[in-house]
Specification:
The complex is a heterodimer of chains A (about 180) and B (about 170).
Chain A (H helix, E strand, L loop, with lengths): L9 E4 L8 H9 L4 E4 L3 E5 L7 H22 L5 E9 L4 E5 L10 E6 L7 E2 L2 E9 L2 E11 L5 E6 L6 E3 L2 E3 L2 E9 L1
Antiparallel strand pairs in A: 1-10, 2-3, 3-4, 3-5, 4-13, 5-11, 6-10, 6-13, 7-12, 8-9, 8-11
Chain B lengths: L2 H8 L2 E4 L5 H14 L2 E3 L5 E7 L4 H15 L3 E12 L3 E2 L11 E7 L10 E5 L2 E6 L6 E6 L3 E5 L10 E11 L1
Antiparallel strand pairs in B: 1-9, 2-3, 3-4, 3-5, 4-11, 6-9, 6-11, 7-8, 7-10
Classes of the chains: A alpha+beta (about 180), B alpha+beta (about 170).
Chain lengths: ~180, ~170
Amino acid sequence: MWRAAEPFPHLVIDDFVPADALAGLHAILDEEPVDRHEGDLFAFEATAPEPTTAELRGLRDAFAATLAPALSTITTKPVTRVEMRAYAYRPGHYLLPHSDHQHDLARALAYAYYLPSPEPPLGGELELFRCRVEGGAIVATESECVIEPRANRLVVFDVSNISLHQVREVLGGLRISLAGWFLP
Amino acid sequence: MTGLEELLTARIATVVPDAIGTAHAAELRARFEDTGYTRYALLDRGSYDELRAPREPELLAALITVASEVTERTLELAEARVLRLVAGDYLLAHHDRVADDHRVELMLDLSPAIVPGAAVHYRRHGNVYFEVPPRPCAMSVVGREPSVSCSHSYVSKRHADAVVVRLVLQLTCR
């Protein structure tokens, strides 16, 4: 399933967390400071790259310990650690197409986990693009797959120089997620 | 130019309001539309319509004259193009054409109406140092050293009928 996924390897897992654990996740995020971030590529609200509370650090480490062994087997990319931030996309927020791949960073896999929202988002889908490469350069891009930010859904996808993806603009409601990367 | 002249030219960043009338802007938009745009859609870099080398010699000459007065330099045209952005469009900084010499960029906003948030940002070493806000009929003149990049911000789909039209001139000092 991982390798067969188009346009590049990815997994979608629904009902990832038992329903009775969701309230606890919200309680952890309520304590974490959030700042607005805006650049030519993005506009959203997010927590700091390194969690400030022991609870979110604990959640991040438990997430890594639970998933990294299985993902290492499934993807054949050995991963052990996780970077995790919480994101809030409000109307007008977006993340334009990019690959996550940077030579000086060891991002092996990317993930996004969507939390239940008091106002489920309109828009905010994760969109994956197929890239055509010639001579080492991307010469064409085409939308191939659109994944709704459904509550309690986990998406994991490969990071490479052609793992082009975006978060479509949120047009209404609130999109809440935990997202980041698995690292060796 | 001497090093000092290059430095002074690079630091120029200004907006001239009401550089063109709304009727003239509408005529230009119609002529560009008739000529035809080409869609650019390598989405990791940008999403927009482009019209290269618009045939408007009198307008370009007049704009270059104004830019020369603003910069107190003798400028000549290196390149002209028209960019048109609609809802969902953008042009990222890493897609910007960075020249290896010192240039002046002139931009004339020909949009029919203000599109909230549709700004142009100039960055030096990644940090925004000058923002051109959406302002139909205004003209910006910005000195560009090789370390300067430019981005055209994302046009929100909340403004479904938004149209942004910008005539962009790259000018070199004679």
